[in-house]
Write a structure and sequence with these properties.
- The chain is of the alpha+beta class.
- Strand 12 and strand 13 form a beta hairpin.
- The chain is elongated and about 115 Å long.
- The chain starts with 7 loop residues before the first helix and ends with a helix.
- The structure holds adenosine-5'-triphosphate.
- It is found in: Cell membrane.
- Belongs to the cation transport ATPase (P-type) (TC 3.A.3) family. Type IIA subfamily.
- It holds the Pfam family Cation_ATPase_N.
- This is P-type Ca(2+) transporter.
Length: 885
Amino acid sequence: MNWFSQNAEQVLQELNVDPKQGLSDAEIQSRLEKYGENKLKGKKKKSLAALFFAQLKDMLIYVLLGAAVITLLIGEYADAIIILLVVLLNAVIGVFQEFKAEKAIEALQKMTTPRALVRRGGDVVEIDSKNIVPGDIVVLDAGRYIPADLRLTESANLQIEESALTGESVPSEKNAARLFEDPKTPLGDLANMAFMSTLVTYGRAEGVVVGTGMNTEIGKIAKGLDETQTDLTPLQKRLAGLGKTLGYLAIGICVLIFIIALIQRRDLFEMFLTAISLAVAAIPEGLPAIVAIVLALGVTRMSKINAIVKRLPAVETLGSVNIICSDKTGTLTQNKMTVLHLYTHRKFLDVPSEGTATAAESTQKKLIQTMVLCNDATLDDGEGTGDPTEIALVVLGNKYHFPKRELEAAHERVAERPFDSDRKLMSTVNKEGDHYRVHTKGAFDSILKIATHALVNGEKVPLTDDLKADFLRAAEEMSDQALRVLGAAYKDSDEVVEPDQMENDLTILGLVGMIDPPRLEVKDAIRQAKEAGITPVMITGDHQHTAAAIAMQLGMAESLDQSISGSQLDAMSDDELKQKINHYRVFSRVSPEHKVKIVNAFRSHGNIVSMTGDGVNDAPSLKNADIGVAMGITGTDVSKGASDMILTDDNFTTIVAAIREGRNIYNNIKKSVVFLLSCNLGEIVAILASVLFFWPMPLLPTQILWINLITDTFPAIALGVDPGDKDVMKKKPRDAKESFFAGGAAFRAIIGGLLIGILTLVAFYFGLSEHGYQLWSGSIPEDVLTYAETMAFVVLAVSQLFYSLSMRSATHSILHVGLFSNKYLIGAIILGIVLQFAVISIPILAGAFHVQMLTLRDWIIVIAFALVPLVINELIKRFTRSANN
Ligand code: ATP
């Protein structure tokens, strides 16, 4: 069916829908059943089995499988089974983690799926795009994604960017009234159609849905579209690099041990297994999975505090942000506008807060009429829809007996030029008796530029410098009180005025001043941000004085001197701006291009900048910033698409809260990684020392495998969800270039490793000496060796579990942090001890692992040994704390 060759009425008839009413509920239901959901079918998800086998594609696993085969050949069946079981369990844990991480990301993606405005049952409602059916009437405005294929039924200056479909990034002009006879007209030329996944860059329109889901043009080419992006975060990449290095190191050590063993004439098979166990100990195979799950759990937590992180790398960057560039309207303020004053030449009129009033003068009346007619908002039963600035103006109209509906019925709109934040103006052409009137409203400085006359006492007079000064003074007076000032102007014409001719030769009517109270909680968030070494900066389209007044109320700026306007920015060279940028806290009357300049200037000093945006034109600045933040409520789909994070409550406070979470998540990842490395190092120390000093092996390969892959995993994850440091926002932001091991992390890992390794050896030695043997005694009976190995095995596992507590803070003692404040960690430690108890107490397991039951006395000794690394580390912390003070 070529919808583009039929006129709009025919299409609507064909689809059986009245454009003024839209579809009924029953009809929607039956069409939804018939055509299915409006979704592109993504790439098939990996099955559980595929996920499982993916886990096995790992260097370490190959090594283990090789070891299993060799142990089988030699007839050490128990060892072979343990190795295989550990491989299996490791894969299962891996699958579970990946599954969980994927689910978390999926849930986040769901929260960010575009919504669409449709007319249903006579009302315009916002719904999930997936519920759209053929025949739905869709309302389009600038910044929205087209939710399905549409035949346009009405359009005003509509422009659509269709690069998703045609590759052409210059927006094409659309016009509902055009018809195309040629059935082979290329997609890019079909001006009366709008296609799914393209986006409105300008203007307004309505259209009827002619195709949904896979029956759309994009659906035809999107077979197997993969929407999930799986890019690694910089930290994950760095850790993968670290993993590789440690892997090579492990292989080197294994070769070394083998050579030493050859020289020492040790049992070659045992040494082969020892070498493998060392490889297992040294390769930090758990790292990537643990970082992925900690990030996934972190972003899930962040979504609960209204910050949806779209790309995982953003979590890390958030922790380093030191400049927050924020919009004013809606983010720092409540976006609940109320008109307080009207100004016509030399006359202020206070608007009553409740009830109605009458405007005495014709100019005042005209001013209100223009504000109401040049307006896209609606107000029904006190419920407004649309831009809050415009809703405030409709409310103003109601107070002065100019209800919008009636006014519009009497003065039909015949043409318009929509608002955009570059011009900062909006115009409509409405009928005015037998002729037409252009109504323009917008930023007063913009109005001044296009006005030639003003109405003074009802008379149109040329706009002299004196007159301008009068109006400007009034505008400034209101701005200084933090009011948002909007000007209005008009001109009459005998004909309908074309959009490019609307905004010239205008006659100024006057001004309105509206209040938009700051959000109460923001002041506190700003104080917190400053304490945390972060500089909040306001970037707004509003007037310099209004912006500065609000910034001062909120504590963002101290004086007007710290503010600069867009035109002053234009007068500066890029270099000059870079030099001075750190001085400014308020950027006013900026357009979206200025935002890019500002971001770049801040970044040139090495700052890590987050930038908010909501409009279509904000995409470049959101992309340029280190963290682009889009508004969930007022933001356009375009800005959301370009952002790294979306605020579901549009609130500045949420940015600060997200930064806090970002810092915590990074710190927690660091805790997990340092913990895992300490554990691995502990194992290496114990084994390497034994080989070098000709001692018997304190640990069997299967025991190391067990500890490394099973008992370590849970505390590491629990550290990743640590509640976080209370003082995290009292510290300076982390330098983004800082090494992961900065701030003593490497030192902590090494100390931990040494302590754990040495204590394991001590336990082993203790076990031997209990029966009168030494490390260097020649032939030690099998049962004595087993006893000593069991001691070492338990001490290694339990000391790691205890040591995890110490990892919760690099500086504070565990008692200060709260011994039980991370319940997961306590749970993981208890679970680890229980597992360890099971392995040595259940005969069949004990046999397989070559260990034996321990008596209560032994357990007490073992626990005492296992506490030593924790205690020493706590003492070191205490010592460095007092040395630093
Ligand atoms: P922020 O960038 O902090 O959100 P803002 O909302 O003031 O601030 P814009 O939406 O770009 O930024 O508006 C810039 C200016 O344009 C406003 O100060 C106002 O004077 C004018 N303006 C805003 N909305 C409209 C509108 N609907 N019609 C006409 N003019 C408007």
